[in-house]
Design a protein that fits this description.
mainly beta; Immunoglobulin-like; five-stranded mixed beta sheet; five-stranded antiparallel beta sheet; 1 helix; 18 strands; flat
Length: 246
């Protein structure tokens, strides 16, 4: 008889628990002691933040402008400047000054918006008084200047080409031939070219440091030649090449 009463009470408790939870989600968490439903606390996951093109998380503009090339050359009797730059801070770049003089109208650079790169060729004019003339870049977004990037000065350097750098074992003579993209012309003196013995990164090893005249220079009685030579121009250009051993 006692077993029957115990079974009856157990069935009654189970029935009451089901009725108390009637209409509730069967997946609601239940307190294992009291059998009561525990309130679920929902914390939505933060939405993934994808920065806009040209911006960094938080809405700040990425103001880096990389100058890939800024060189000056003598072309067809004129001094021509070439500027190649990249940025994600805007959708346009204008050249506003050349050699310290404001242009009558800004020169828009050609644009590759997919890669954020810009290019322009400009006439530099008389560069006799300024060995390393400047151009000024202005970054635009939607036609308006980007704050902090309204006037970026960029020095225009010449291009140094090393035609040869040869060391002859029998004579122990190092011969270096080099030229600048801005030779003596248009009323401006030719740049001074200096050759030094360096490592592959252009770091001076203190072996030689001599001026090249007439596009060529010989260094005599070198028992051990440098692995590389670097030619530096007074107009800012620089080039490094390995020495050919013969």
């Amino acid at each position: 008889m006692r077993r029957m009463w115990a079974l009856f009470l157990l069935l009654l408790l189970l029935t009451m628990g089901r009725e108390a939870r009637a209409g509730q989600d069967p997946l609601d968490p239940i307190d294992p002691v009291t059998g009561a439903v525990v309130e679920a606390k929902y914390h939505p996951a933060p939405a993934e933040t994808v920065p806009e093109e040209g911006k960094v998380p938080g809405g700040a503009v990425d103001k880096q402008v990389t100058i890939e090339r800024a060189t000056i050359s003598s072309v067809g009797g004129r001094s021509m400047g070439t500027v190649i730059a990249s940025t994600r801070a805007g959708d346009g770049i204008h050249i506003t000054t050349v050699g310290g003089s404001a242009l009558p109208a800004p020169v828009p650079m050609a644009v590759d918006l997919v890669r954020g790169r810009f290019f322009a060729n400009v006439v530099m004019g008389d560069v006799a008084a300024n060995p390393v003339p400047l151009v000024t870049l202005q970054v635009l977004s939607g036609g308006a200047p980007v704050v902090g990037l309204e006037a970026i000065p960029v020095p225009m350097e010449d291009i140094v080409t090393i035609m040869s750098a040869t060391y002859v074992l029998r004579t122990r003579i190092l011969t270096v031939s080099a030229a600048s993209s801005m030779p003596e012309a248009h009323g401006s003196p030719g740049p001074v070219l200096t050759v030094t013995g360096t490592d592959s990164s252009g770091n001076d090893l203190g072996l030689i440091s001599q001026v090249i005249t007439n596009r060529s220079h010989r260094v005599l009685n070198l028992s051990v030649p440098p692995g590389y030579v670097t030619v530096t121009s007074s107009r800012g250009g620089k080039s490094t090449v390995p020495v050919t051993i013969r």
